[in-house]
Amino acid sequence: MRIAFVGKGGAGKSTIAGTFARLLARRDRAVLALDSDPMPGLPYSLGVAVDDHPIPDDVVVPGPAGRPRWVLRPDLDAPTFVDRYAVRGPDGVLYLQFGNLWGHAVRLQQAQHAWSQVVEHLDQHQWHLVGDLPGGTRQAMAGWAKYADTVCLVVEPTVKSLHTAKRLLALSDATWAPANILLVVNKAGDDSDAKRISERLELSAAAVIPEDREVARADRRGAAPLDTVPDGPLCATVNDLVSQVECLYARN
Predict the structure, then answer these.
(1) What whole-number distance in Å separates Cα of residue 190 and Cα of residue 239?
(2) Span 2-251: which CATH code?
(3) Which of 150, 158, 142 is nearest to 36 (CA)?
(4) pLDDT at 148 over 80
(5) How remote is the C-alpha of 70 from its chain's centroid?
(6) What is the pLDDT of residues 13-31, one digit of tens each?
(7) CA atoms within 13 A on the CB side of 225
(8) Do 137 and 171 meet the contact criterion of CB atoms below 8 Å apart?
(9) Other Cβ atoms within 10 Å of 111 Cβ, number
(10) CA distance linking residue 211 with residue 191, whole number of Å
């Protein structure tokens, strides 16, 4: 499975992506969680101690003529890269952070080229990839989600989140369009929130996660929902989402 979580910043995609990755791993799956968000939130929802340590600068070098501007060092292939730099978290999930806002923007560009090469060259039968993309539309529309077969569009019941989601639906028109775009409604106050979002986006919700004060408190502490409110509605709903995604891949 190759899954990307996208949406407006603050919609809760990192919280859901981290929970999804751990629940998938609990089904005896080898899961690699990829964090390309310059302001990382994924490690907190994974329960990973490393929270702001991206890959070293020297893993990429200038590319030769006719290649991307930056490429992985010649001694690094994708499996070696994962073995050397991934952090093992709870439930056996491996975590890689590719970029942050420390230093010059070129560092982020270098990290993103490394991200692209790793997801392109990893053995598709070895790892299930769960990626958390930066909030907004720019990176997703620029192709950072092209590795994914399934895109989970996380929307909270606000006008700004809806506007972002509407634009992200254009991913279905890309030449590398994902096979599935799943709507995940988060922080729903009641059934009317999910209905309104589905009608505006003309897309049925694959998952509706109710607003949960306990999850909000955990987020403020940087704690993973599975470690703080494992029996809450967020974890239960995300577990159902994992089952839905597994069924999609089983049919294909």
Answers:
(1) 20
(2) 3.40.50.300
(3) 142
(4) yes
(5) 23
(6) 999 999 999 999 999 999 9
(7) 29
(8) no
(9) 23
(10) 11
How far is Cα 169 from Cα 64, in angstroms, rounded to an integer? 35
Give, as one character, the DSSP assignment of residue 102. Answer: S
How does pLDDT run across 125-145, given as a tens digit for each residue? Answer: 688 999 999 899 988 888 878
Helices (H), the chain: 13-25, 42-46, 78-85, 105-121, 138-139, 159-168, 191-201, 213-221, 225-228, 233-251
**One-letter identity of residue 85:** Y
Per residue in 240-252, pLDDT tens? Answer: 999 999 999 887 6
Interatomic CA distance for residues 167 and 23, integer angstroms? 29
Residue 28: which region, alpha, beta or left (left: phi > 0; alpha: psi -120 to 50)? Answer: left
Give the β-pairing of 2-7 and 150-155: parallel
Residues ≥6 apart with Cβ < 8 Å to 37: 14, 99, 132, 133, 134, 135
* Count of beta carbons in the 10 Å neighbourhood of residue 195: 14
